[in-house]
Design goal:
CATH class of the domain at 14-93: Mainly Beta
Mean pLDDT: 83
Strand content: 35-45%
Radius of gyration: 14 Å
Helix content: 10-25%
Number of helices: 2
Strand order of the largest sheet: 2-3-4-7-6-5
Oligomer: single chain
Largest sheet: 6 strands, antiparallel, barrel
CATH architecture of the domain at 14-93: Beta Barrel
Number of strands: 7
Distance between the termini: 36 Å
Shape: globular
Low-confidence stretches: 1-7
Length: about 120
């Protein structure tokens, strides 16, 4: 059963597999995203963090240095209803320049995956 009650995304997402590194208690984990948007990402994992957990993580984006981010666990999927097990993450930024910088990375990923025209339509540019 998923803890997500309805679709609340305000930003379009792109399906993409990126490596995510983070720490859980006393161990370091490496999982992968299923998709990403300007507002957050979904991390595939069989051992999600609790809803509301704020944590630091690094996303490895091809052609760039790994990007360090902060996120809050917004919802969980246990994978039982055919969904992928994991956790929905809402990005938290220290300041506006950090947000703008990472949003430009997401825009480039969307252009790479969907093409410039479709990405612009999805992002309403």
């Amino acid at each position: 059963m998923s803890d997500r009650t309805d679709e609340k995304r305000i930003s379009p997402r792109t399906p993409i597999e990126l490596r995510v590194d983070y720490k859980r208690v006393n161990s370091f984990l490496a999982d992968y995203t299923k998709n990403i948007s300007k507002g957050g990402t979904f991390i595939r994992t069989d051992k999600p963090l609790a809803i509301g957990t704020r944590f630091h993580f690094r996303i490895s984006v091809p052609g760039l240095e790994p990007v360090s981010l902060i996120g809050d666990v917004a919802w969980l999927s246990d994978g039982k209803s055919g969904d992928v097990p994991g956790m929905g993450i809402r990005f938290v930024y220290d300041d506006a320049p950090s947000r703008v910088k990472f949003e430009s990375v997401v825009e480039k990923l969307m252009e790479t995956n969907f093409g410039r025209d479709l990405a612009a339509k999805l992002m309403k540019k």
